[in-house]
Specification:
It is a single chain. Helices cover about 55% and strands about 15% of the residues. Strands 3-2-1-4-5-6 form a 6-stranded parallel beta sheet, with helices on both faces. Strands 7-8-9 form a 3-stranded mixed beta sheet. The protein has about 300 residues and is an alpha/beta fold. The protein has helices at about 15-25, 40-45, 55-60, 70-80, 85, 100-115, 130-135, 145-155, 170-195, 200-210, 215-230, 240-255, 260-280, 285-290; strands spanning about 5-10, 30-35, 50, 65, 95, 120, 125, 135-140, 160-165. The protein is globular. Helix 1 runs parallel beside helix 2 (about 40-45) and helix 9 (about 170-195) packs across helix 12. The chain has 14 helices and 9 strands. Strand 5, helix 6 and strand 6 form a beta-alpha-beta unit.
Length: about 300
């Protein structure tokens, strides 16, 4: 798909593994891979990827995709001695698929540029099921030239790829997307608790919402599948992960001098849910915190 370029992928977790698998299967090229967990490595080797065993081995790739759980993890694999930044070279392209802080994104882009390497932020949105299906949505921050280079590769595992502007723009859009989703789901959870107290079931309420102006992606996915069903499994987008993303939004708001009251409420609920033992559960579990407040 990109001539003689070689591809690498580091971070093979819940989202990273299926993205990497799609990259291997669609490009029909051996993708260099690295992760600290042996299970996804073994599965992807079966699919045709090559386990290089180290960051140094991965750094031989021309285009490297990164899928990390947090900015802290991203910073570590880039800046640790023997990390991606130290091994970067002119002509290389680094693509961060993680949701990472805006400041860190711009700092890393500058550091890689000093080595002659290009950097793009391309955080992914939608669910684990979308990652498995190859129908993720990706917002990209990059120069026009870098975007043109990586877009065909991103479309191996995404059905929507949007160029949002220069480096950092993708993170801004993704982080604020999650901020809005948390606000919407919080409203759905509050509405469900109030309806239940008034004798109307969550299912009836959400069915009516879906036929009117309160319909939304959040209702049809987080509302029906988690809040109404009462199902908040682990190894899906967790409370702790969502709290991380909302905290990034609050950091941006603070820098802009904006009081993001709704985002602050969402962060507070997510914090309470984590303290109540739901940190590893699917994040709409905040409904339990809202329900408890009425008792």
């Amino acid at each position: 798909m990109t001539g003689t370029s070689t591809f690498g992928f580091i971070g093979l977790g819940v989202m990273g593994e299926p993205m990497c698998r799609h990259l291997v299967q669609t490009t029909k090229q051996p993708v260099l891979i690295h992760d600290i967990n042996p299970e996804p490595l073994a599965r992807l080797v079966q699919a045709g990827a090559v386990d290089v065993g180290s960051i140094a081995g991965l750094a031989k790739a021309d285009i490297i995709f990164i899928s990390m759980p947090s900015g802290e993890h991203l910073k570590k694999i880039c800046e640790v001695p023997g990390g991606l930044l130290e091994l970067a070279r002119a002509g290389q392209t680094i693509v961060d698929l993680s949701t990472s802080p805006l400041k860190l994104t711009r700092e890393l882009a500058g550091a890689f540029a000093a080595k002659g390497a290009d950097y793009a932020d391309a955080p992914v949105a939608r669910t684990r099921a979308a990652a498995e299906a190859g129908t993720l949505a990706i917002s990209v921050g990059a120069t026009a030239g870098v975007f043109a280079r990586i877009e065909p590769l991103l479309r191996c595992f995404a059905s929507e790829v949007t160029h949002c502007g220069e480096v950092g723009s993708g993170q801004v859009v993704k982080i604020l997307n999650n901020m809005v989703v948390v606000g919407t789901v919080t409203a759905l959870c509050e509405a469900a608790a109030i309806a239940n107290a008034a004798g109307v079931s969550t299912e009836t309420l959400f069915d009516a919402f879906s036929k009117g102006s309160a319909d939304s992606f959040a209702l049809r996915n987080h509302g029906y599948k988690a809040v109404a069903a009462g199902e908040f499994p682990e190894r899906v987008f967790s409370t702790d992960y969502m709290h991380k993303d909302v905290s990034y939004a609050l950091d941006m708001a603070k820098d802009a001098g904006i009081e993001a009251r709704e985002a602050a409420l969402g962060a507070r609920l997510l914090t309470e849910a984590s303290r109540a033992g739901f940190g590893a559960n699917y994040w709409p579990v905040i409904v339990k915190i809202i329900e408890r407040s009425s008792k």
